[in-house]
Every structure is written in structure tokens, then in C-alpha cells.
Amino acid sequence: MKNGKVKLDVAGHVAVLTLNDPQALNVVSVAMLEDIQAALDALEKPDSGVRCLILTGEGRGFCAGANLGGGISGKPGAKDSDAGDVLERWYHPILKRLRDLPFPMITAVNGVAAGVGMSFALMGDMILAGRSSYFLQAFRRIGLVPDGGSTYLLPRLVGLARAKELSLMAEKLPAEKALAWGLINRVHDDDALMEEARTLAAELAAGPTVALGLIRKLYWNSPLNTYDEQLELERQSQKVAGRTADFGEGVKAFFEKRPAEFKGE
Q1: pLDDT by residue (tens digit) across 130-179?
Q2: What's this model's pTM, rounded to 2 decimal places?
Q3: Is residue 250 within 8 Å of residue 262, measured between CB atoms?
Q4: Distances (CA, A) of 225 to 99, 133, 213, 229
Q5: Which of 74, 107, 212, 233 has the most crowded CB, counting CB atoms within 10 A?
Q6: How many Å apart are CA 259 and CA 263, to the nearest integer?
Q7: Where are the domains of the chain?
């Protein structure tokens, strides 16, 4: 990427998007957001071949939040400042693109995931964390409210009481406790984290990509829908999945008692 704040590596059908400002614990800057946009442009090309994405951070931390000194959070305390506008212009487009990816996304959380860095971490369909990592709703420490979609995601992941506790108290949530609370999916030893993430990504990338993308969409929409609306969305999604070559291969493999060989089509 042109600013060097993100690295994108693609091997086979798996892409690894690495936040790359390790000396600053990968704090989010304008340059990093520009690089993330460019990386997503590459990933979303029809010929990219990518069927699973891993998001992680370089060095000792996943992401320590926004770069408060880089102008991305507006002018602190100024009456004419609009930190909400910064969110709308810079963060929301990226978060929505991550939500709408047509393939699964894994976040491999190494070290700290604080502030909006925690929000990015929670975008994973599968959230893996190193044993020494931790999560922190740091916003109240600087007089701001949680953002990056965390007030949407947290109550749905850990319940309202724990979501409010995390945001109001701004206390570190260690990986093991995050797992016990249901915030994340798996905890691994630090030195095994990326290997485990790649193994999981390879398994997902070998799956029926269209169906997996539709599953993502179903669960993102589920909290917003009535039961009847969700039934209808399932019907529409099943119609699409049922027309894929992968569905035909899956049924054939079932009757032939062999592993299916999905092509993502």
C-alpha cells in the first residue's frame, strides 16, 4: 500500500491484511485508513481469488485505537469540532465494507485491541486472540463515547450489562475472560496465533464461499429483523445458495460418502 501503514499478502485463496505501524502499536491514522481502503479495493476485485481474510496487527499490538495527535479525531474540545463527522468520513465506509465482504473474515488479535482497534477486532466472523492479548473500551478515558460500531456489537455479544461495564469502567478485558464472556471464539498461545489463524482461514477458504458469504449476511441482519423478516431472508438466501455449483457438489459428495471439493462458485 502506498503509505506503508498496511500490508496485504495473498497466498492461494487466503489474504492477510496486517496493520503496519508497530512502533505506535498500530494506531489508526488517515494514512492507515487510506491503505485499508486500497487493500479492500484489491480484495473486492472479482479476479482476486480471495475466499477468506485474516486481519491482524504487526508487532506487539493489534491496534491501540485512533491516532489522537494526527488530526483524525477532530480538534479536541473545540466548539466547532465534529468528531462524528470524522467517523462518517473515514471509519464508517471501511466498517461497512468489512461487514459486506462476500467471504469470511478472521481477526487474529495480538496484544492490545483498544478503542476503535477493539471495534475492528470485533468485525471478525471468527475472533482469535493471543493468550496475552486484551480488549479495552478506552473511550471514556479521553472523554469520548464508544464508536466503530461497538455499541451495536457489544450488547449482542456479551449482553447489555457487560457491554455497559466495559464502556463505563474502561477496564482491560484479558483474552481468557473475553472467551468466557463469549466476546471471542478462541484463545491460542501467542506464538501459535497466526499459524492457527491461517489453518482456520484455509479451512474456510476451501468451503462453499457463496453460502458462507450469505451466512455472514444473515447474521448481520438478524438483530434488525423480525422473525418473519428473517425467515424471508433465509428463503431468499437459500434460493441463491441452492443454485450454486457448490451445492451440487456438496450433495453429490454426501451420497458418494467423500469430502466435498468446493470451488467457491
Answers
A1: 999 999 999 999 999 999 999 999 999 999 999 999 999 999 999 999 99
A2: 0.94
A3: yes
A4: 17, 34, 18, 5
A5: 107
A6: 13
A7: 6-205, 209-255
Contact 99, 220 (CB under 8 A): yes
Count the residues in the chain.
Answer: 265
Q: Encode burial over 217-235: b for 16+ CB neighbours within 10 A, e otherwise.
A: bbeeeeeeeeeeeeeebee
- Cell matching residue 104: 469470511
What is 6-205's CATH number?
Answer: 3.90.226.10
Cell digits of residue 139: 473511550
CA atoms within 13 A on the CB side of 227: 0
Scan for cell 461495564, then name that residue.
165
Q: How far apart are CA 123 and CA 156, in angstroms?
A: 13
State the Cα–Cα distance between residues 203 and 113, nearest whole angstrom: 25
